[in-house]
Amino acid sequence: MIRILGNISGIICTIILFINFILYLLKDIYFKTNILNIKKAINSILPIFSKYHIYLMIICFISCLIHISCFFTNINYITLDVFLLIFLLLIITFDFHIFSKATYYHLKKLASYLIIILILFHILIY
């Protein structure tokens, strides 16, 4: 039962992180392309992703904590899950409006890309 809860919470966290990855990927495509139809399509999708971004990241953080606590009762060494949690905390920290948006946008984007790479390694290893 606990293992099933851990798997479900890990899947929820992974889906939300892929949505976060798509958000930054669409923003990059929007600024790099000159095709008007693609810009219109991305412009209609981005407000939906941006509106619920912080709530999704908080849900992702909670489900990540549940995932880690279900599988690792005694963490004696640094695992890949700990690195995922660190990058997730970085993304959540950069989302608060205390920081300048222009300064931390690139760091959020970089952390988002790195966390997807770590998730892929995590899925392949386990």
Radius of gyration: 16 Å
Largest sheet: none
Strand elements, count: 0
Mean residue pLDDT: 77
Structural class computed from helices and strand pairing: mainly alpha
Residue windows where pLDDT falls under 50 for at least 5 positions: none
Span of the ends, CA to CA:
19 Å
Name the helix and strand elements from N-terminus to C-terminus, one letter apiece.
Answer: HHHHH
Q: Beta-strand level of the residues, as a percent range?
A: under 5%
Tell me, what's the shape?
elongated
Number of helices: 5
Range of helix content: over 70%
Folded structure, characterized:
By secondary structure, the chain is mainly alpha-helical. The chain is built from five helices and no strands. It has helices at residues 2-32, 36-51, 53-71, 80-95, 101-125.
Keywords, please?
126 residues, 5 helices, mainly alpha
What can be said about this structure in brief?
With 126 residues, this protein is an all-alpha fold. The chain contains 5 helices and no strands.
What's the layout of helices and strands?
Layout: H1 2-32, H2 36-51, H3 53-71, H4 80-95, H5 101-125
Helix pairs in contact: 1-2, 1-3, 1-5, 3-4, 4-5
